[in-house]
Structure formats: structure tokens, C-alpha cells
Amino acid sequence: MVATADEPSMRCALRHVAEQVDPAGTASVWDAVLVVEVPLPWARDITEAEPFASLCERPVGTITGSDGRTWRPQGIVPDDPDAGVRVIAHEGPSEGVGPMTRREWLVPPDARADLVALCRALLEADAPALERFEGMRDDPPAGTVDVLLCTHGARDVCCGGSGTALFNEVLAAMDTRHSHARLFRTSHTGGHRFAPTALSFPEGVAWAHLDAGTLLAVLAHDGDPATLGPHVRGAVTLGGSHAQVADREGFLRWGWDWFTERRSVRCVQGDPSGDASRTEVLAEPVSGGSRGVVVDVELAGHIAKVPCGEPASGQDPLESVWRVTGVST
Question: Model-level pTM greater than 0.90?
């Protein structure tokens, strides 16, 4: 299928929702995410701002570290500029997929010259250099949930409009269920056609077409997986559309516990980069043992990636849409 819009001025996210496109298997893939407070206003590319501008020669979507890991730079709106600059590193496991490890620093206002040095030490995996910043460590309590909601209007009007409105609504609605959660306004997360879109940690999952109810559930790590599942794009440390689709099936069956567990993925039949495959995802519960899903994934068709606010041209690039045809546990 190739989707078109009856209304030429239709925004990309509204078009995507109207076509009822399943977002599973569309998450970008990174090894780690570098989150830094960056004052507004933001340019179209967050890497035009410091400290990112000093870490790359031109605006980029990812930065390759000295150890080969792919880092995603994300800006967040400062909470208290007078307190300093917050730096958060979310790093995925060296093998498989699973919860990401968080380290956090608060660079004091009188030490902002150290901001670039700290970020560079992270990218270079320079443990001795990082020791210099131990006095700035400011890790939140264990179990803290971070959600980065895209509100980057300079990049796309869908995120700037619906994302910002959702942020304000949910921030006002957070209650005792969310005492362990933090909600940040963030720069472009990729895929503004999925707006409102977000990244959640420590699970490292990309979300699509959120509303107040689903976002509050993500922040609380509760809610019915059957309701949340259609909003899951995939785990950002898990490469391959088929694998991301199969991994979501584990969440649908095992709930939030699934995203807290280390998981391994293998293709048992077919081509994981082709039109169809059978993929096995095995999880290792903290309590011991294992559980998993075997999922048949096939290409359902394609949808045009039409630029926001423009009519379909018939020559727009196409995005694959996937469907599940069978699941066993």
C-alpha cells in the first residue's frame, strides 16, 4: 500500500495517524545517548549548539566514539540554568539488548569550561579523564524513569506543536505514581511523523503518537501493554526492523518486566533484512530462568514519507510497514 492524503496541507503526523500505520520496527539504532541541557532557542540541528558543536565538525545525527559506539546527541531544556548544566549518559549493554546504564553529572556554572571536556571523555570512553569529574556526579535515585518528549519546533512543526502541548498537559497531571519519573522537553528524536514522540529510559524505547494517558503510563511504568503496544517503535539498542517488531511482542505478553530484562535475538528462519522472517527473542529474568517469544514478521506494504505540510508527489520515499503473522512462546 502507498498512502496518500486527501488534504494537501495535512501535517505528517496527522497523516500517519489517519493511515493507521503501525510504528513497530522504525526506531533508530544507537549504542548510547548523550543528553545535555541546552538553553532555548534551538537551531534546526541540536549539534549546532554547545557542547555538541565542539565535538563534531558539522551538524550530525550521531557521533561515533573512539571505541566505535554510536552516540545520539540530545538536548533538553534546562531545569535550573543557575544550578549548572546537567549531563546524562545512557549507555546500552555491550551484548544483546536490555536496560541502559545511566550516569549523570551537574557541571557548576563556574565550571562550564569543563562541559566539553566531560562530554569528550564520554565519547572517547576515557575512564581516567572521567575520574576528574567524579565530584560533579549527580545520579538520581535507583529506579528513576526518564522520558524525553520531543518539542523541537525548529525541526518540525508537529513536534513543536503537539509535543509542547502534551508536555504541558502531562506535567500538570503527574502525581504520586510518577514520583520516580522525570519528564524532559528534548530535541529531535528522529521520525517527527510519529509525533508526539519520545524516548524512555532506562529501557531505551522509542514511542510514537503519544497522548496524555499513554505518556503518563510510560512515566509510571504501568498501564495495559495491549494499549501501549501500538505506540512502541522499538528498542533503540536493537538493530533490525524484524527484531524490533518481535521484541515488542515480548512486551505485549510479559509487560514492563520484559523491558527490564537482558534479551538476545536471533533469526531462526528467513531473511531478517528481507520481506519475512521468524525471529526468536529470549529474555533473562532477574529471578532466573528464561522466557521468550518466536515471532513471524512479514512486510505489510509501504507508506510514502511525505514532507510535512506538503501534498504527496507520487515520488516521495517509501517506508516499510511490518505485521506479525504468528507468535509462540
Answer: yes
